[in-house]
Design a protein that fits this description.
Length: about 110
């Protein structure tokens, strides 16, 4: 019954912050990021949406598997899901810091 809804919810959740980060900083990419001097091995801008979609989908689905295996929001799940949530918030905070501050030293 409802398991597919949990699967989809956990899998989609990381994309919410990723989309918001992109949306808030979309003007900074051509205006600032493209003008930065980057090394020759820096991937093309087109790679990032594909890579982050795969990463966020994997992280979200993995969080569902942990939640499901540990019996939902049980005491066993608090630490792994709490750590996951903390890294997800830090992950979401990085683009606004990087693109908003225009300060490479602050985010490295």
């Amino acid at each position: 019954g409802r398991m597919w809804a949990y699967t989809v919810g956990f899998t989609v959740l990381p994309h919410v912050g990723g989309f918001l980060g992109w949306f808030l900083n979309r003007k900074e990419i051509p205006a600032w990021y493209e003008k930065l001097k980057k090394p020759s091995w820096c991937p093309s801008r087109r790679v990032f949406p594909v890579a982050w979609t795969m990463l966020y989908t994997g992280m979200g689905y993995a969080s569902y598997l942990v939640w499901n295996d540990l019996g939902g929001c049980s005491s066993k799940a608090i630490v792994p899901l709490g750590l996951y949530g903390a890294q997800l918030v830090l992950n979401w905070a990085w683009p606004p810091l990087f693109f908003g501050a225009h300060n490479l030293n602050m985010v490295m």
